[in-house]
Amino acid sequence: MDDSSVEPFDELLVFVDGASKGNPGESAAAFVVCDGDGNVLFEMASRIGVATNNEAEYWALLLALDFLRQWKVKRLSVFSDSELLVRQLQGTYRVRSSRLSSLHQLAKERIQGFPSFTITHIPREKNQRADSLASEILTSRVRL
Length: 144
Fold this sequence. Notes:
By secondary structure, the chain is of the alpha/beta class. The protein has helices spanning about 55-70, 85-90, 100-110, 130-140, and strands at about 10-20, 25-35, 40-50, 75-80, 115-120.
């Protein structure tokens, strides 16, 4: 299918969050994609195995970036309640953890695929949907 006729999004807003039972422990990552007016277009949550909470935050971002790389997006604005994630990607904080170093590098590489990218720290109350998705999938049990 030729996607040349697909109109690009001027801006997408993405809310990311990770959750962990223990540090490290069983973890999950989630993201919510909204249009520029805040209307939810897509949301996803996934278990990611054993990870620290900070690793889960990075995985939430990486899952969102991977999902959106095929979309035509002029400006991608990401929001997270993880101050560490945001400040490390902004270059304000150094990445000291060897566990986060490779995730940080992957995120930086994937961010380069977007014409315009910003990441902003927000209070947890403003990230409720992503937080709820990550928590729900982490506590849910699959029944056969």
